[in-house]
């Protein structure tokens, strides 16, 4: 059942991406409304996918590479819908929908069988740690996408060719502010994820910290985003610099995520 919902979700996100793309070039508000409705529908099917997989696996469906990409995509759309309700920036969906779709396409190419979780890792800390980690990463993903939007919009202004996407995208000030908000949401979630991960590690292995790949890269990511937030607060990092640095930090995050999952065979690294 989860696989059926998975394919429906991907199809609906594809539809949303196509309609959003049509809006960016035509700027017809009706298309934006349809695309937004498609994203909400896709999220509903995506939620059904997660629930069905959770029921089949009997655990949080985010421990294999396939599951974690599907879960990451789901939480990213959830974070987008949260921003949509709070800040009303609907056009962000034009960048979120292809990102979520790309994660699902990648997940579809990976082994889908349910892998039993090692008994030593079974703990109520698993859903807590995983939810915090992916939600934090999702806000960082949104900060990255907002940074891309900022760079595109700034290029239009610098070249003075005010056409096309320029009229569809928010102002530079709005994009920069939303980028900052996403960092503010993501950083405490990442911090909480590292803390709960350490507690889970102590429960599972008897040690809070073992300097394994996931732990090390989580710490590196934490320092990168801490430095970025510190720079925004004290050194006045704004605009293009902030957009580029948030993109670089996310590239490090997503790159390490893929590399570690490939090296570990897609299983969570606590047992390794």
Provide a compact summary of the structure.
The protein is an all-alpha fold and 272 residues long.
General description of the model:
The structure is a single chain. By secondary structure, the protein is mainly α. It folds into two domains: 1-116; 120-272, no CATH class. It is built from eight helices and no strands. The chain starts with a helix and ends in a 9-residue tail after the last helix.
Topology:
Blueprint: H1 2-26, H2 29-57, H3 65-87, H4 93-108, H5 125-159, H6 172-205, H7 213-234, H8 239-263
DSSP helix count? 8
Name the overall outline. globular
For the biggest sheet, the summary is: none
Mean pLDDT: 89
Uncertain regions spanning at least 5 consecutive residues: none
Number of strands: 0
Rg from alpha-carbon coordinates: 19 Å
Quaternary state of this entry equals: single chain
Structural class: mainly alpha
**Helix coverage percent:** over 70%
Strand content: under 5%
SSE run = HHHHHHHH
List keywords for this structure.
single chain, mainly alpha, 272 residues
